[in-house]
Design a protein that fits this description.
The complex is a heterodimer of chains A (152) and B (143). Chain A is mainly α and 152 residues long. Chain A has 3 helices and 2 strands. A two-stranded antiparallel sheet of chain A has the order 1-2. Chain A is elongated and about 65 Å long. Chain A starts with 5 loop residues before the first helix and ends in a 5-residue tail after the last helix. In chain B, helix 1 (3-29) runs antiparallel to helix 2 (107-140). Chain B is 43% helix and 19% strand. The longest helix of chain B is centred in the C-terminal third of the chain and has 34 residues, at 107-140. Chain B has one domain. In chain B, the strands form 2 sheets. Chain B has a two-stranded antiparallel ribbon with strand order 1-2. A two-stranded antiparallel sheet of chain B has the order 3-4. Chain B starts with a helix and ends with a helix. Chain B has 143 residues and is of the alpha+beta class. Classes of the chains: A mainly alpha (152), B alpha+beta (143).
Chain lengths: 152, 143
């Protein structure tokens, strides 16, 4: 048990992942009128890559389509608390995977982006980003409370 | 990969959609122009060709497929379909049989393009707005 436990670093990676997903979705939206464009989706296979190599990655459940199963996977991926005050070493890396996104029926120009669904996904992603950011804020608030002898 | 990558992608979308509006407006404005700027017969309607471009090499999948793709106007092509012919012998641009060739612009087509571009522009602007909200949340973490 340390002051900066794995929660904060996990949240940090969750924020990174949400931002990456926003970038991908914004790219899909920007290409909503590009001929023959197929939407992309950022998927995170959180493989626990040991820096020493050799140890196999934990078995991963098949991801449901269009779903970013980051939280559950990361709670598995960060079992030991990192060194206090230091970011986790390269042993816990989230490997980003770009897969084909949820595609609509192609229009006459072969484009398969559904702008409405993409916008909804962007809004949902932003909400989840806000939730992770708020959780990180609360975590820091707890530390602040303790650091000020409970007078905060 | 950071906030500015997302901003650049969305602004590339905004810019491309604005270009589409420009081209559709130009087509509409020249729907009756029987002379083009270079003197080669009537105006020909133009079409922007959009192309996706990779923005950030860092955000790419294991297979090397880029995850951050913006958009750009690759080229603006002229529609080579023949224009409509109208019998008007008094017109200075009439041929020897009295027919004037008008541009191959279909105003309905152009207005539909305008609407589509305008809606896509709004969608990209809304993505920028969402991104601003996310950045604000991130800044609020340490407050």
């Amino acid at each position: 048990m340390s002051l900066f436990d794995s929660t904060l670093w996990t949240l940090e990676r969750a924020l990174d992942a949400r931002l990456a997903r926003h970038v991908t979705l914004a790219g899909n939206l920007a290409n909503a009128n590009t001929a023959d464009f197929a939407p992309k989706e950022a998927s995170f296979q959180a493989t626990l890559r040991q820096a020493e190599a050799g140890s196999p990655a934990p078995p991963s459940a098949p991801p449901s389509p269009g779903h970013l199963d980051l939280e559950g996977r990361l709670s598995v991926a960060a079992p030991e608390a990192p060194h206090p005050g230091a970011p986790p070493s390269s042993s816990t890396q989230t490997a980003l995977d770009i897969v084909a996104g949820e595609a609509a029926t192609p229009g006459l120009d072969g484009n398969r982006v559904d702008p409405d669904r993409t916008l909804a996904a962007i809004a949902q992603n932003a909400l989840q980003y806000g939730a992770a950011a708020r959780a990180a804020g609360k975590k820091l608030a707890i530390l602040r409370y303790v650091a000020s002898d409970g007078n905060a | 990969m950071d906030f500015f990558t997302a901003l650049n992608i969305s602004s590339s979308g905004l810019s491309a959609e604005r270009e589409r509006v420009n081209v559709a407006s130009s087509n509409l404005a020249n729907a009756e122009s029987t002379r083009s700027a270079d003197g080669s017969g009537p105006y020909r309607r133009r079409d922007p060709v959009l192309e996706s471009v990779s923005f950030d090499a860092a955000l790419s999948g294991a297979s090397g497929e880029p995850g951050a793709v913006g958009v750009k106007v690759a080229e603006i092509v002229e529609d080579q379909r023949p224009g409509r012919k109208v019998y008007s012998p008094g017109h200075p641009d009439a041929d020897e049989k009295g027919f004037v060739t008008f541009p191959n612009v279909n105003p309905v087509h152009e207005v539909v393009n305008l609407l589509s571009a305008s809606k896509s522009y709004e969608a990209n602007a809304s993505a920028v707005d969402t991104l601003k909200g996310m950045a604000q949340r991130a800044l609020d973490i340490a407050r």
